[in-house]
Amino acid sequence: MRMFPAMRVKISGLDPHQQYYIAMDIVPVDNKRYRYVYHSSKWMVAGNADSPVPPRVYIHPDSPASGETWMRQVISFDKLKLTNNELDDQGHIILHSMHKYQPRVHVIRKDCGDDLSPIKPVPTGEGVKAFSFPETVFTTVTAYQNQQITRLKIDRNPFAKGFRDSGRNRKRKVVL
Amino acid sequence: MRMFPAMRVKISGLDPHQQYYIAMDIVPVDNKRYRYVYHSSKWMVAGNADSPVPPRVYIHPDSPASGETWMRQVISFDKLKLTNNELDDQGHIILHSMHKYQPRVHVIRKDCGDDLSPIKPVPTGEGVKAFSFPETVFTTVTAYQNQQITRLKIDRNPFAKGFRDSGRNRKRKVVL
DNA sequence: CCCTTTTCACCTAGGTGGTAAGAT
DNA sequence: ATCTTACCACCTAGGTGAAAAGGG
């Protein structure tokens, strides 16, 4: 499934005439598994992390493109797909449920991206830079744990319009 | 709009480990404009061609990919989009209505594709090869000129299922 | 007990030819 | 007359959370 809300970044300081790949991966924040304690509205440690999963990388579909092109637009990762299926063969990013993760944005000079692949770790070294934003850390779930998140999802995601109460359009099928 | 039926090709003889772009462009067959004569079921010359339009290239979305990848699959151009709007800014291939055209498939070695662009002519020379299939020549229209074409479109295109007679599912709105 | 999967109605997004109106 | 455009009902394709069913 997609990540929502999606990561969106603006980039400056690139060489306008150089070609770059932009990619995202998602790394564990710690070695723990979590559970949500409803009465205190907090995530609590609930044991150690599950075993690691195959590394996956989302290569932004506009890649490769010039620095000028990347800097002219907001770069959105809304088509990035996540799964909890460790045997996934669709190239989706594989995560464990109930774990904390940090998305990372990678800027890779084209000549350093020759072995860039959705199923290999992002290369490191000269011509490759990684950026993380601590405010984008999130915890994975298979069902929402509190109503603020549910409301955010329904109010902001266009595909969830059918669940909005506004305008009294809410007429869901009645069970007979 | 899309071209239907779409061009589909199989390629052999590539270097499995070399990277290639695959692209398509569509060139005029002659310098004429045509009209369809219904009673003889034939296209007849109806004057000289309209003035040329900006060249456009459809770069196959799997590009670039290895020779191995290209040779393993049927390469389909079903997402290629056409328009008759000479001012198009969506990167669609621009054609004149009532003219004859020949689609061409281009195989471009990655190192020869540095100035490959949707709005520039396909490069020529070393590392670039072009292929045309005379049986794929077609004439552009804005309305179908005979029922065989209409039937082919309706029967074969999944998006036209609503127009099929089969199974007596045909219940279109009645004008009051 | 808590987490996960499946199915569902309800959406967005966009590809069909028919039809009627518009343009030349 | 002939070609073109705009709008329509009808599709494909796939992204939503709710609810029910499944699993350890």
Compose a concise summary of this entry:
Chain A has two helices and twelve strands.
Descriptive overview:
2 copies of one chain form a homodimer. In chain A, strands 2, 5, 6, 10, 11 and 12 form a 6-stranded antiparallel β-sheet that branches. The first copy, chain A, has a two-stranded antiparallel ribbon with strand order 1-7. The model of chain A has no long low-confidence stretch (mean pLDDT 92). Chain A has helices spanning 67-72, 147-156, and strands at 8-9, 19-28, 32-37, 42-48, 58-59, 65-66, 75-76, 82-83, 93-94, 100-109, 128-132, 138-139. The first copy, chain A, is globular, with a radius of gyration of 19 Å. Chain A is mainly beta and 176 residues long. The chains hardly touch. Chain A binds a DNA duplex (24 and 24 nucleotides) through residues 1-2, 4, 35, 84, 97-98, 141-144, 150, 153-154, 157-163, 172-173, 175.
Tell me the layout of helices and strands:
The structure is a homodimer of 176-residue chains.
Chain A: E1 8-9, E2 19-28, E3 32-37, E4 42-48, E5 58-59, E6 65-66, H1 67-72, E7 75-76, E8 82-83, E9 93-94, E10 100-109, E11 128-132, E12 138-139, H2 147-156
Parallel strand pairs in A: 8-9
Antiparallel strand pairs in A: 1-7, 2-5, 2-6, 2-10, 3-4, 10-11, 10-12
Chain A binds a DNA duplex (24 and 24 nucleotides) through residues 1-2, 4, 35, 84, 97-98, 141-144, 150, 153-154, 157-163, 172-173, 175.
